Amino acid sequence: QVQLVESGGGLVQTGGSLRLSCAASGTLFSVYAVSWYRQAPGEQREFIATITSGGSTNYAGSVKGRFTISKDGAKNTVFLQMSSLKPEDTAVYYCTCLGLRGQGTQVIVSA
Predict the structure, then answer these.
(1) DSSP code of 41?
(2) Which residues of 5-27 are buried (b: 16+ CB within 10 A; e: fewer)?
(3) pLDDT digit string (tens) for 88-110?
């Protein structure tokens, strides 16, 4: 069974950067789009970014210009480079693909 595993979260100060990774146990990413979402405590899940199999990308307005989604097809991994982080970016970040979702990785941005 294909699994998605996120990593790279942590604690960072305002203005800092983190790179999240989403690794797949299969070759889904070469065929299907991959998206990142986040969910803060007490909040609805929020779409962050998506990358298609062909490499086209789309971003939520709240992160556009600060976050970059990319992928390494050979490693079946999708990345989310996050820069200029703000406290409101604090959340659990998930990657999704074809209805699958990883366990999430926690990002905490301190003021």
Answers:
(1) T
(2) ebebbeebeeeeebebbbbbeee
(3) 999 999 999 999 999 999 999 99
